[in-house]
Amino acid sequence: MQTRVLTGITTTGTPHLGNYVGAIRPAIAASRRADVDAFFFMADYHALIKSDDPARIERSRLEIAATWLAAGLDPNKATFYLQSDIPEIPELTWLLTCVTAKGLLNRAHAYKAAVDKNTEANEDQDAGITAGLYMYPVLMAADILAFDAQQVPVGRDQIQHIEMARDIAQRFNHIYGRDFFVLPEVVIEEQVATLPGLDGRKMSKSYDNTIPLFAGGAKQLRETIMRIVTDSRLPGEAKDPESSSLFTIFRAFASEAESQAFRRALEEGIGWGEAKQVLYERLEADIAPMRERYEELVARPANIEEILHEGARKARAIAAPKIAELRNAVGLRAMSSVGVAGGKSKQAPKAAKPPRFASFRDSDGSFRFRLFSSEGEELLLSKSFKDPKEAGAVQKRLKTLGGAMAIVHSLPRSLVLELDGEPVATAPDYTDELERDEAARYLRGALDSLAEQEKGE
Ligand code: TRP
Questions:
Q1: In the predicted model, what is the mean pLDDT of residues 136-158?
Q2: Which ligand 1 atom sits closest to the C-alpha of 155?
Q3: Rounded to an integer, what distance in angstroms lies between the CA atom of residue 185 and that of residue 162?
Q4: Which of 22, 39, 212, 329 could form a Cys-Cys staple with 6, CB 3.0–4.6 A?
Q5: How high is the pLDDT of residue 338?
Q6: What is the domain-level CATH number for residue 396?
Q7: 424 three-class SS
Q8: In b/e form, how buried is each residue of 30-45, taking b as 16+ CB within 10 angstroms?
């Protein structure tokens, strides 16, 4: 079983060493694991909340996508896309907005901080605050819930947003009566190093103490490293590696043996200037090949675009059937289906011949059944049951389940029907996703007419 891990990357600013070590590198390493199904996307709708400068938005999307690819993200392994290429995300945002308590959003840290700032400045409490900032957590919930992400690796400042996504999902599940959404779990990477910046505080854009990853090339990298603050010990005097930013940064890139050698050099009194040169050379060894790829990528934006479009296609193959299911659940469904789904609506016209079950004994002696449509098409094949009574009990439940309550998961080319969280039957293979989605609708319709028939008897 793979765990679906999803994270969004805000497309503002220029990536620095702290971003690379703290987020990009560990995320890419995780995406290579066989047990991880990774989804990474550029949160460019979120970027609009922070910036209304089109040129900056455009530039930043390109740079950040290129950075991740240059740093080794394999778009064939991970699903890598632009948030704004997925129309299902804003669509889901609205469905979620309609179940989200306004009071929940009032409590969001970022919104509250903006209100506090206004209050302090004796301004109207909502002065200069857009509805976009206010809605930030709902959009983020949609990012996550549209894909049934199980784990969401983020920085500590984002924990509240994941909790809100869970709240919103639970509320939707509760209102519409079943588990539409997987409840995402926050993952905080405790192991990864947080790098100190030029002044020794955590490297962060807001402290203006960052070392750029690619921007400005090797020259800029070296110059910035030379500006890292050190103590005033002279060459020949022993330096304390543990309290030195140089050593912390070095260790985040180097092997254990290299780190030991650098530690010794510091303790033996290497001059700070020389130590900075050693650090620069070690970083450059890792960064130079990535920077080269980065520059090639940025020079050919059409290639990046193609990669991202392919990612969006993969992502939409998951989100689209999900949103179709949700639209159906909230009542945004074909008018001609009135009465087919849900207990609250009117009776459907009865099909002349109802769907039917056919039980059989498999070659290994186990018991299984099929569900056929009234036209004789196979809709479902059950799993194997040891006990025929068990197979019968499942059939009985399917007869009264109804289409709206059925949990049908879409695989790329087939469907899986679940009861109590267990897969109990699968649908045949389809040639494409359209055919599969058509079949899912058909299956729900068949379950509805079974349920109608049961009620009538
Ligand atoms: N808000 C996140 C940040 O600032 C970025 C983000 C947007 C995100 N949507 C997401 C992260 C969904 C995880 C999941 O870092």
A1: 95
A2: 15
A3: 7
A4: 39
A5: 62
A6: 2.30.29.80
A7: strand
A8: bbeeeebbbbbbbbbb
Q: What is the DSSP string of 225-267?
A: HHT-----PPTTS---GGG-HHHHHHHHHS-HHHHHHHHHHHH
Cα angle value 6/9/10 (rounded, 5°): 140
Which of these, 281, 242, 249, lies nearest to 263 by C-alpha position? 242
Same domain, 24 and 119: yes
Q: What is the dihedral of CA 165, 169, 170, 172, to 10 degrees?
A: 140
pTM here is: 0.74
Residue in 157, 158, 163 to alter for ligand 1 test, most ligand atoms within 8 A of Cβ: 158
Residues 136, 233: one domain? no
| Residue 351 in this model has a pLDDT that exceeds 70 | no
**203 domain residue, yes or no:** no
Residues 125 and 50 in one domain: yes
Cα 172 to the center of its chain, rounded Å: 19
**Domain shared by 63 and 159, yes or no:** yes
Residues 142 and 39 in one domain: yes
Same domain (yes/no): 185, 53 = yes
Tally of structural domains, the chain: 3
- Does residue 344 have a pLDDT over 60? no
List, chain by chain if needed, residues with CB within 6 Å of any ligand 1 atom: 6-8, 10, 43, 46, 140, 143-144, 152, 154, 158, 161
Same domain, 282 and 309: no
Give phi and psi for 328, each to the nearest 5.
-60, -45
Q: What digits encode the pLDDT tens for the residues 92-108?
A: 999 999 999 999 999 99
> Do you know the residue count of the chain?
457
Name the amino acid, one letter, at 385. F
Give the range of the structural domain holding residue 356, as residue numbers without chain letter: 346-456
Distance from Cα 142 to the centre of ligand 1, integer Å? 11
Mean pLDDT in residue range 412-419: 88
Identify whether 197 is part of a domain.
no
Q: What percentage of the chain exceeds 70 in pLDDT?
A: 96
C-alpha 188 – ligand 1 centre gap (Å): 13
Domain with residue 279: its CATH number is: 1.10.240.10
Residue 152 lies in a domain: yes
